[in-house]
């Protein structure tokens, strides 16, 4: 059986295709964010109707095991009863105050308690707002303009960070977006992930102008790429030595790779941390926080402007609180490690059996199968993967009811709602698909 770029006869997706055809007339590319446009795998995106636990249901009634979890937030699975209940109760009280509310204190306290380096935090509405604001605070605090980011890392669609960007920017071939002016990016220096000598060189040349280094502590946006201990150590040492701040972008890894994020897992001590995704339990929230002496520069405690009509929204904070409390009271991390290792081992075994060159990278419940013989450590090596083969793999699995990320350059996510049987079913389907790829 052959899988084409738009799937095959195994599944009827007629309604999905009709709805997406209409969407293309209404929204650019038919989507509200390019990561979901299937540009990396071809064919039409699948239109969804509902989700429950580890499963997605499309508008044609097809069921899928979900490995994107809304690109990370759904670590408890979809519609966890505790989160649903919290959101319903919040909606009964108010949709938005535009004024202080008690939920903000509870969520802020949870974040401060759980994320080791955060002493003070501000809630925003997305990961993009979090990284944009953290960069501004770092610049305001240090009085410097320069920032360092790494090729293939993605920090949302902040103008100054849309340079050599990962995720959909890499998938769709626009790592440097039109509309971002040279003036906006002239202070952005591009590092190579895991390359300590190159980082030293950047600081030797520009050290006194650099306000901050921002990085993904486990990259998810060029596929899953794992940091070396030397790289993490040198990030901290070099920034400290040159008076620059270290911004750990934990939008994806926060509450995911451990309850305290990658900084807890690896013992990183950033000055500022950015959060998103899980912190809102599937509702739109982001947060940035860190050293109190730095955060006290944010208006109105200090002078660095940052604001938001819906920031601290009571329904979104309720979802975030319920999610973080559930993670704290019933930590799923051991279970996630077990079933994620099961998936890794099964995929590796079947790919090897089918003679498919591959490398699997994984940290906890973040995983990528690269169709490559080179272990990815940076964008240069990650981008050597056979993306055409990934596209066939994606559709082969989609047609068997397994929904993987629609790009080689996105990590997959496993949730606490996935069962060992879901994982085994995924491995069995992957085994079938690998045989069609050779
Ligand atoms: C590491 C990282 N930072 C920032 C963002 C931006 O977050 P958002 O899409 O919520 O703006 C994302 C994901 O999109 C991300 O993966
Ligand atoms: N890893 C990339 C994202 O999480 C972005 C999702 C989106 O923009 O829909």
From TrEMBL:
Gene3D superfamilies the record matches: Aspartate Aminotransferase, domain 1, Type I PLP-dependent aspartate aminotransferase-like (Major domain)
SUPFAM superfamilies, alphabetized: PLP-dependent transferases (SSF53383)
Positions where N6-(pyridoxal phosphate)lysine occurs in the chain: 277
Associated pathway: Porphyrin-containing compound metabolism; protoporphyrin-IX biosynthesis; 5-aminolevulinate from L-glutamyl-tRNA(Glu): step 2/2
One protein family per Pfam: Aminotran_3
Main location group: cytoplasm
Cofactor requirements of the protein: pyridoxal 5'-phosphate
Keywords recorded for this protein, A-Z: Cytoplasm, Isomerase, Porphyrin biosynthesis, Pyridoxal phosphate
Keyword Cell membrane attached: no
EC assignment: 5.4.3.8
Reactions the enzyme catalyzes: (S)-4-amino-5-oxopentanoate = 5-aminolevulinate
InterPro entries: 4pyrrol_synth_GluAld_NH2Trfase, Aminotrans_3, Aminotrans_3_PPA_site, PyrdxlP-dep_Trfase, PyrdxlP-dep_Trfase_major, PyrdxlP-dep_Trfase_small
PANTHER family hit by this protein: GLUTAMATE-1-SEMIALDEHYDE 2,1-AMINOMUTASE (PTHR43713), GLUTAMATE-1-SEMIALDEHYDE 2,1-AMINOMUTASE 1, CHLOROPLASTIC-RELATED (PTHR43713:SF3)
NCBIfam families tied to this protein: hemL, PRK00062.1
Family: Belongs to the class-III pyridoxal-phosphate-dependent aminotransferase family. HemL subfamily.
Name of the molecule in the record: Glutamate-1-semialdehyde 2,1-aminomutase
Species name: Pirellula staleyi (strain ATCC 27377 / DSM 6068 / ICPB 4128)
